[in-house]
Amino acid sequence: MNEKPVPLIVDVDGTLVRADLSLEALVRIARSGFAALLSVLLWMWAGRAVTKTMAARRDRIDPARLPYREEIREMILAAQAEGRPVILASASHWRHIRAIAAHLNLSDPVIATRGRMNAKGAAKLDRIRERIGPDAAFDYIGDSRADICLWNAARRAWSVGHLPAGSKVERLGAHPAPLARTMWRAMRPHQWAKNLLVLVPAFTSGLFLQPAVLLKAVEAALLMSLIASSIYVINDLLDMDSDRAHRTKWARPLASSELSIPAALVLAFALAGVGLLGGWLLAGPMLSLWLLVYMVITTAYSVRLKSVLVGDAIVLASLYTIRLWIGAIAIGVPLSFWLLLFSVFLFLSLAYLKRYIEMRDAADPDQLLSGRGYVGNDLNVVMMSGISAGMVAILVLALFANDPETAADYHNPALLWLLCLPLIYWLNRIWMMARRGQVEGDPVAFAIKDRRSLGVAAIVAGIFLLALYAPPIAQLEAH
After folding, report:
1. Which residue, 154, 174, 284, 420, is most buried by CB atoms nearer than 10 A?
2. What is the rounded average pLDDT for all residues in the chain?
3. Cα separation of 148 and 151, whole Å?
4. Burial of 401: CB neighbours in 10 Å, binned 0-12, 13-18, 19+
């Protein structure tokens, strides 16, 4: 008599896919508005099973874009080739699990949360016994402590996460990356270079030669970096779906599900708390207030404003300018009207450039850019707007150099005219390179790594220092 083939039972959340389907569904629902967020909170109060059921009714997953573990997909294919049943068993809602099973061409019924029954741990084991028989053997792949009872009951057991000491459970795949390293990646420390803008007021005021002032400015830049990182984490949480569809952003810790949603929230709130408290201790409530303003605007941008045509570029330019304002508050100096105006138009040009790059790389130029208010056919208008904004920034700089009040603050104000030349070169070059496809992603991040851009920055700094401290040209001619 032939024995029945042993079923392979596969957990889904954190195992087959590097994601928590229910939590991600709740995030997608909550980000749609305050009423939706309130609904999510009420569901959570009613219990896990109710929460998962309501989330599954309101949200539909795209199984093709989930971050699957290829080693488990290979095991599933091998089991199917042997004629073994493959059953997906998960604490997520059956609607989501059934969609994944259909995507993977699995014909066996799934085991999942339904109604008020949360299919996790012992409850999942009971459902498996009901399905295959109380004494039937099965193999099981899981990832968490909740799976210990299933591993103990299984004929063979594998784990992609938690590995009980001294158990029969076999490790499947590579060890998970250390949490601290994954959190560090999610903070995007390479983006902190943008916060050097906080140091600009100390530089333009000439106070950077005073160690106490420079130290305060550096501390403010570090606090600004923590605040920015907290927003990066929240932004990645809200953009998980679109990041997974992107050719490079799919590798981010949240999009790839290397970092869990609960861990991301803890990280974001911790960074924000340290940043705001540090701002209060450094320069009082006004600095904390402006750091909070930056957080609110950036969060609003992530949730809604980035899809507003043209308005998104204005918000981006404003966020860069707020960095200058924060730097001025930290060291207690007034911020020049000319510097503010120059910053707004310069970063408006770079904001348009960022959108230009996204539209340039769009798969379908006739469709609305994902999460944005533009279509690919807006490309030329965005380019003209960006170049024009850059040229206005140069004009503001020229007017600043010609301002009679400026002369009183500089030993050699005539040299300020020279600032226009390297900036004209740099703006035209970066736009031409973007048009040729040679600038990817964020143009500010590109400039930080680009040798010629760094060379232009050094020339601008040198000209400014000469204007600030060099003897007047008239004195030199007299000698």
Report:
1. 154
2. 87
3. 5
4. buried
CA distance 425 to 441: 21
Rg (CA), the chain: 28
Name the range with the highest mean pLDDT among 126-140, 194-208, 463-477. Answer: 126-140
**β-pairing, 111-113 with 156-159?**
unpaired
Residue 17's beta-bridge partner residues? 13, 68
pLDDT at 476 over 80: no
Max CA distance (Å), the chain: 113
Mean pLDDT of 315-321: 91
Task: Please state, in angstroms and as integers, the Cα–Cα distance from residue 323 to each residue in 190, 227, 290, 415, 447, following that order.
Answer: 17, 11, 9, 26, 18
Tell me the C-alpha distance between 111 and 123, whole Å.
10
Tens of pLDDT, residues 246-256: 777 888 898 88
Q: State mean pLDDT over 354-370.
A: 70
Nearest to 385 by CA among 349, 341, 337: 349
Contact between 269 and 394 (Cβ < 8 Å): no
- 331, 391 contact by CB (below 8 A): no
Evaluate if pTM is beyond 0.85: no
Give CA–CA dist 217/215, Å, rounded. Answer: 5
- Count CA atoms closer than 13 A to 141's CA, side-chain side: 26
Mean pLDDT of 25-54: 84
- pLDDT tens digits, 417-457: 899 999 999 999 999 999 998 888 788 888 888 899 999 99
